[in-house]
Design brief:
Blueprint: H1 4-8, H2 13-34, H3 55-62, H4 67-87, H5 93-124, E1 134-136, H6 138-150, H7 157-170, H8 181-184, H9 190-195, E2 199-203, E3 206-211, H10 215-234, H11 236-260, H12 274-278, H13 287-306, H14 316-322, H15 324-341, H16 347-374
Parallel strand pairs: 1-3
Antiparallel strand pairs: 2-3
Helix pairs in contact: 2-4, 2-13, 2-14, 2-15, 2-16, 4-6, 4-10, 4-13, 5-6, 5-15, 6-10, 7-10, 10-11, 11-13, 14-16, 15-16
Length: 384
């Protein structure tokens, strides 16, 4: 059965609004880093962050966890919806492939240039780090995943599921767990770092780059998003209603795995309290991290579908969700400047700057969303 979306060519508001929620939450994490001078990292080779039993510190970080997997998943969903709409316009397979490679390259290029400038100038210098460092961020991996997944889109959903599950499950086995930090570098090959293991690249002058989001686990989430997009094409309303059940199932499996203290969390220590129970390894994304964050995303999608009749193009969440790359670069620029102006730090400053930033970002994003909509459907401006 063809969905109303495909008949009308209109965007699916639930997806835009979900992306908008993720954009707002992401800004909280970056406000904490750029302005509040607070940053935590759930790295596989390091102990879990010490929040000092502060629920505020923990949840300020934890609530932003769904952002990266949410962006990755929704990108996959958007890709398959884009393909479906362009098929109706007569696009051939090579045109689709060219589009995704151009779009992926733009993401990678902007990440390594403009985004890296803001991370170095706005964040790293404030932390007292090196003068210049190359970050391969989630935007870099989104670009690479877009190009890679476009080559796999013709595979049946069953094969995509099998491939994704294998990549997610085997990731912990590519990590040299239990070794002292100084001994880890000698155990990692270049392919191991690029595909599975977040790590830094060094030269004779010292560390010069950090590969934060290895390809295979994040590509797997993109492919799961593609599968969800295929389901949406066939059963839009039914698919959204099922996301609540799937999300609940994911969270139950997450809870079982966390209580077991298994390798599924990479950090195998059993939880002994709420904070430790919800503490999950993000770099690379552990099985528990993926279950928890996608479970939350599915519940959010189900909730948004319930209120979809009350949403419109004017909804701020929808507006933010329709201009994600524009919003992303603009919020980094804004927080970089605010971080240079504001000398104070801490959570009160971070939350205040976050709220102020969201209000300031709304107006240019609203303008750009209108401008973007006014351009031709194949305009380059629609890539941002």
């Amino acid at each position: 059965m063809e969905t109303s979306y495909l008949k009308s060519g209109k965007r699916i508001l639930e997806l835009d609004a979900a992306r908008g929620i993720l954009m707002i939450l992401m800004a909280l994490d970056h406000s904490s880093s750029f302005i509040g001078n607070i940053h935590f990292s759930e790295m596989w080779a390091l102990p879990m962050p010490d929040y000092g039993n502060s629920l505020l510190a923990f949840f300020t970080r934890w609530i932003t966890h769904p952002c990266a997997p949410g962006f990755t998943f929704l990108m996959g969903t958007g890709m398959i919806l884009f393909v479906e709409s362009r098929i109706k316009r007569g696009w051939k397979a090579h045109a689709m492939l060219r589009h995704f490679f151009i779009r992926g390259f733009i993401l990678l290029f902007l990440s390594l240039t403009l985004e890296n400038f803001f991370w170095n100038w706005g964040f790293l210098t404030k932390q007292g780090g090196p003068k210049w460092f190359i970050f391969f961020t989630i935007i870099s991996t989104l670009g690479i995943s877009m190009m890679a997944s476009s080559l796999l889109m013709k595979l049946r959903s069953l094969w995509l599921v099998i491939f994704s599950m294998i990549c997610i499950i085997v990731t912990p086995f590519f990590l040299p767990l239990g070794l002292p930090i100084k001994e880890i570098a000698g155990q990692l090959s270049m392919s191991q770092i690029l595909l599975f293991t977040p790590w830094e690249f060094k030269t004779f002058v010292g560390p010069i780059a950090f590969w934060v989001y290895p390809l295979m686990p994040w590509l797997s989430i993109t492919l799961l998003g593609i599968i969800f997009g295929r389901i949406l094409i066939k059963y839009r309303d039914g698919a959204f209603k099922k996301t609540g059940l799937v999300g609940g199932a994911f969270l139950l499996i997450f809870a079982a795995m966390r209580f077991a203290g298994s390798l599924a969390n990479i950090n195998t220590l059993k939880p002994n309290g709420l904070i430790s129970f919800l503490s999950i390894t993000k770099y690379p994304p552990s099985i528990t991290f993926i279950l928890l964050t996608l479970g939350i995303l599915f519940l959010v999608l189900a909730m948004l579908n319930h209120f979809a009749s009350h949403m419109s193009d004017k909804n701020p969440l929808v507006i933010f969700g329709r201009v994600p790359l524009f919003y992303y670069m603009l919020h980094l620029a804004l927080f970089s400047v605010m971080g240079k102006i504001i000398s104070a730090s801490g959570y009160a400053v971070a939350y205040g700057a976050w709220g102020t930033g969201i209000i300031l970002l709304y107006f240019p994003c609203k303008w750009y969303a209108r401008f973007k909509k006014s351009t031709s459907i194949d305009s380059i401006w629609r890539l941002f």
